[in-house]
Amino acid sequence: MHGASKEYLPQIREALARVPEGGWREFAAFAGPELETLVAWNNKIVLVGDSSHALSGAFGSGAGFAMEDGWILAQSLAHFDNDLSKGLPLFDQIRLSYYARMYAHLTSEAARRAQNLQDIGNPSFDERVANKIISDGGADMSWIYQNDMEATWKQSSKPTTSSVTRTPEWRKDDPPDIPYSRLRKSQQVEKSTA
């Protein structure tokens, strides 16, 4: 642990102590995997802004993403009178699906670029550089650059019969309104054997 961190609150020191040796990467860009959840420690910690996604700055909207995260987090907590056990799962559902869409776009771009290089065969330095230039190719990116957070909130916070707004301890026969792939492995096993 870094020397200055000895002055941090005990809870922060405990969290930092859980980072495995060599696992801390200061200012690392795109250094981690797509997260399965943005909340941890039984809905006591939430990741927002750059900590919630290991993106490379491809969209030039990092500060905007952080403000959107903060706004949705504030709305989620206010919606449940600051009950973390309910507000954080709702925040997680709304923002994680947004970040999943970004990762899907980046994966698609990476595949397109790899195919371009393969088609060229033996690309020159200039061709490799040109291949890295972001080209949306007419793709509709308004979901990033013209994202209406208020509309997103209104759509996402509507209660449904199986809404995430319940306490997030779901029974195996009553799954939440989140993608199946995000359920804990134990829940996946229970569902597959049910």
Plain-language structure description:
- This protein has a two-stranded antiparallel ribbon.
- Helices cover 47% and strands 2% of the residues.
- Mean pLDDT is 73; it is low at 160-194.
- Helix 2 (62-79) runs antiparallel to helix 3.
- The chain is an all-alpha fold and 194 residues long.
- It is flat.
- It has helices spanning 10-17, 62-79, 84-120, 125-132, 142-145, 149-156, 185-193; strands spanning 39-40, 45-46.
- It has one domain.
- The N and C termini lie far apart (45 Å).
Name its key features.
2 strands; flat; 194 residues; two-stranded antiparallel ribbon; 7 helices; mainly alpha; flavoprotein; 47% helix
What is the string of helix and strand elements?
A: HEEHHHHHH
Number of domains: 1
End-to-end separation in angstroms reads 45 Å
Strand content: under 5%
For the biggest β-sheet, the strand order reads 1-2
Q: List unreliable stretches of 5+ residues.
A: 160-194
Q: What does the overall shape look like? A: flat
| Helix proportion | 40-55%
Q: Output mean pLDDT.
A: 73
Number of strands: 2
Structural class: mainly alpha
From the alpha-carbon coordinates, what is the Rg to the nearest angstrom? 20 Å
Taking the sheet with the most strands, its summary is: 2 strands, antiparallel
What is the number of helices?
7
Keywords: FAD, Flavoprotein, Oxidoreductase
Protein name: FAD-binding domain-containing protein
Biased composition (Polar residues): 153-166
InterPro entries: FAD/NAD-bd_sf, FAD_monoxygenase
